[in-house]
Design brief:
Blueprint: E1 2-5, H1 11-23, E2 27-32, E3 37-42, E4 59-63, E5 83-84, E6 91-92, E7 98-102, H2 109-122, E8 126-128, H3 146-159, E9 162-166, H4 170-179, E10 182-185, H5 193-201, E11 206-209, H6 216-228, E12 234-238, H7 256-263, E13 268-270, H8 272-276, H9 279-292, E14 296-300, H10 318-331
Parallel strand pairs: 7-8, 7-14, 8-9, 9-10, 10-11, 11-12, 12-13
Antiparallel strand pairs: 1-3, 1-4, 2-3, 5-6
Helix pairs in contact: 2-3, 2-10, 5-6, 9-10
The structure holds phosphoenolpyruvate (PEP) and manganese (II) ion.
Manganese (II) ion (MN) binds near residues 274, 300, 310 and 311.
Length: about 350
């Protein structure tokens, strides 16, 4: 159920409707839009009892949402969600493309700084790096943990780049939430419902990767877990799915971008690195991702990929990343997008402009 408020409903009227929903034993999710506020209702087992909601002051109408995902749906919020980063001009969603670049794993301080310097110079606004790694083999490098998070905090301080890094479980989520600007939940955890709920309790953007075999509905329902706990800053990311094709590591399903954009207001990024697994496929698929309308790119970059402790074969060189940025810049206007170059950080936010 969804309560649609009138265009000029006052904050007091909106609050009164939320209070009434609470009293009915449900949870209210006010979603302000450009034209009007809609209030999503969750916490019901079956049909929501409309009670007297329709009669409350400022209410335009009460409508049923038939889709399984509600808060993620465009029915609740027509406008695209734009996520902002306090003290900076960086955004994810909306007209500006968001570029997240960096190594698969943080391996040591020198490696992380060398890569961060080059991705910042090429104009990325976000730096990625794994501290806690979900590896297929228990014998493979598992990440540096807390030490990696501290290195990334230094990178934010030094270059202004905002930090994206993965939380693997409840324990790492606590640490990641303390250091990161965006918490990544990986493909293998897309249906780790208790982790999704815990991330939903935080008030920090969550980048949710599509599971290896997830349908569109399963993907949006995973996002719904986070939203339903009151964290509305969810970023979706297509990273390829498992198919019979073996010329790439995964099959990058770019058609999910317009499918998500039709169904949901949440931003959707594309990860051409895990989506192909091969360096020579990363630039062509990035061009295609921007052309198809993705809200941004998450890409693995390494200055010495042959020595990388994880995902070397799919990591592009910094020079290729610089070229990628030039190509994105040229394609962006065709799809009414802009590529911002570099991040501007308020002096008060404690980092240098790049
Ligand atoms: C990663 O981003 O390094 C990663 C492990 O991604 P995914 O969850 O998509 O495999
Ligand atoms: Mn990786």
């Amino acid at each position: 159920m969804l309560v649609v408020m009138k265009a000029h409903a006052t904050p007091e009227e909106i609050q009164a409707v939320c209070d009434q929903i609470d009293r009915m034993g449900y949870r209210a999710h006010p979603m302000p839009g450009a034209q009007r506020t809609a209030i999503g209702i969750t916490g019901n087992q079956g049909e929501v009892d409309r009670g007297n909601l329709e009669e409350l002051s400022g209410v335009a109408e009460v409508i049923r949402v038939s889709k399984a995902y509600k808060l993620a749906s465009r029915d609740v919020k027509e406008e695209d969600t734009v996520i902002r980063f306090a003290g900076t001009d960086a955004t994810i969603g909306g007209r500006n493309l968001a570029i997240i670049a960096g190594p698969c794993s943080i391996e040591n301080r020198e490696q992380a700084f060398a890569i961060a310097e080059q991705v910042a110079a090429a104009g990325a606004q976000f730096f990625r790096g794994g501290a806690y790694k979900p590896r297929t083999s228990p014998y493979a490098f598992q990440g540096m943990g807390l030490a990696a998070l501290r290195i990334m905090a230094e990178i934010r301080e030094h270059f202004g780049l905002r930090i994206v890094t993965e939380a693997l479980d409840h324990e790492s989520l606590e640490h990641v939430a303390e250091y990161a600007d965006v918490i990544q939940i990986g493909a293998r955890n897309m249906q780790n419902f208790s982790l999704l709920k815990q991330a939903g309790k935080l008030r920090k953007p969550v980048l949710l990767k599509r599971g290896l075999s997830a349908t569109l509905e399963e993907f949006l329902m995973a996002a719904e877990y986070i939203l339903s706990e009151g964290n509305y800053e969810v970023i979706l990311c297509e990273r390829g799915v498992r198919t019979f094709a073996d010329h790439t590591r995964n099959t990058l399903d770019l058609s999910i971008v317009p499918a998500v954009q039709r169904a949901s207001h949440l931003p959707i990024l594309v990860d051409p690195s895990h989506g192909t697994g091969k360096r020579d496929k990363v630039l062509p698929m990035t061009r295609a991702a921007v052309a198809v309308g993705a809200d941004g790119i998450l890409v693995e970059v390494h200055h010495q990929p042959e020595k990388a402790l994880s995902d070397g074969p799919q990591s592009i060189y910094p020079a290729q990343f610089a070229r990628m940025m030039d190509e994105i810049e040229q394609i962006a206007p065709v799809v009414e997008r802009t590529l911002p170059r570099g991040i501007h950080v308020d002096a008060a936010a404690g980092a240098h402009d790049s």
